[in-house]
Amino acid sequence: MENQDYQILLYYCYAHIADPEAYREEHHLFCVENNIRGRIIISSEGLNGTVSGLKEDCSKYMEYVTSDPRFAKTEFKIDSHDKHAFNKIHVRAKEEIVHSSLRHINPNERTGKHLEPKEFKELKDQDDVVILDVRSNYEHKLGKFKNAITLDIDNFRDFPEKVKELEHLKGKKVLTYCTGGIKCEKASAYLLEQGFEDVYQLHGGIIKYGMEADGEDFEGKCYVFDNRLAVDVNKVNPTVLSTCYVCETKSDRMVNCANPTCNIHVPICEECGWKMEGACSEECKENPEKRPYNGTGYYQKNTNGYNPYKGLYRKPDKDKIRSLHD
After folding, report:
1. Catalytic hit among 58, 178, 184, 284
2. 183 phi/psi in degrees, rounded to 5
3. Where is composition skewed (Basic and acidic residues) in this entry (predicted)?
4. How far apart are CA 185 and CA 160, in angstroms?
5. Is the pTM of this model over 0.70?
6. Which domains occur in the chain, in start order?
7. Banded model confidence at residue 40, pLDDT cuts 50, 70, 90
8. Using one digit for the tens of pLDDT, what is the confidence trace for 241-294?
């Protein structure tokens, strides 16, 4: 087994940030000085991130976040890994920590009842319960809970419009879930606002459910927003849910299309992967910019010219920085 010297952290926290840009600067600086990489969003409503680093660096990072009284309640989903799951660090200030078109909702004021993984597992199969996946198409096509209702949406901001199709479920207990829990905070609150009375959410999402309930009855794999693309969740009764994008045979082997102008992430079986040279279609296969396929379907992004100091007004202590290419 490979050394698992690194960790991947998934987290969010809804908390008021008076000056998001100033905090973005401070947060970015800490990440650079401690070799933390990943994607972090800062807004007036809180922070949302997925990052990676050596275990000791991740410990420092978690302590840094939770030592701030605003984010003391932040819960981290921690996964072990053999290397960084990101090539760069991006800390950005945005209007929302997840693009939802539900800016009026404050999850700290009202949201669905939080269910721990074991509680969710016990409740999900009852007759008066429906399970609602609030994620996008490309996510739930790769994996979802058994018998879950999925929505035909390409982005979470389309969720409110689709709720109109769920009116017939108002007499049921509605259990919402997503990858790490952040989307459910607003999705469950919006359902309550629209007249649904008995609404719950899976605390910590699919990732925590896999860690604490062995992922039972989660079919397929879970799409994640780092270089892994997809992770196993179910240790009890795993199945393959998705089909190859090319030949439609069962496959959960995620591939990043070799055509960089396409670049979609879709399941492609190993045979089609080699046949199509890592491309998702004949058009992409013939693209002159197509990247060489090595059988994995993952392409290391070129970090030449990458400057971790970009966007910083203050310069960090370079002596604290370890190599960006370790």
Report:
1. 178
2. -70, -35
3. 314-326
4. 13
5. yes
6. 6-97 (3.30.70.100), 113-220 (3.40.250.10), 243-298 (no CATH)
7. very high
8. 999 999 999 999 999 899 999 999 899 999 999 999 999 999 999 999 999 998
